[in-house]
Amino acid sequence: MKNSAALSVVFIGIVLIIIVTTYGDASTYVSFIEAKELYSKGNMSKIHVVGKLNRDAEDNIMGIDKSSDMLSFTFEMVDEKGLKENVFYGEPMPPDFLMSEQIVVIGSYNNNKFIADEILLKCPSKYTEEKIKI
User: Fold this and answer.
1) Domain locations in the chain as residue ranges
2) Are 31 and 49 in contact (CB under 8 A)?
């Protein structure tokens, strides 16, 4: 009985440690304005910003600047509150990036520039119903 009680305490302790470390990594979605405020207050944690690519009236994507070696790029993103911001991503452009409906950038500000460590894309679903011709 004593061994099972000791194992239970160890198991509960491990679960609590996992929950606490995961909670420390958790982040909420914010706008660029809120992200800048967090940065100005000294918060260097990862920030999630939701938005879309900047497009003109004819639905052409604006503000993409690829590096000469194609290993990084900068793009203009419009957050949910309508604020445009340049985002730097130090990796090659993800597949289907230009077709994405919505983008989540995860990163932080550095020298008043948003640096994305990770990009999550919401692309048009290939599982949407289409009219079937008979």
Assistant:
1) 28-122
2) yes
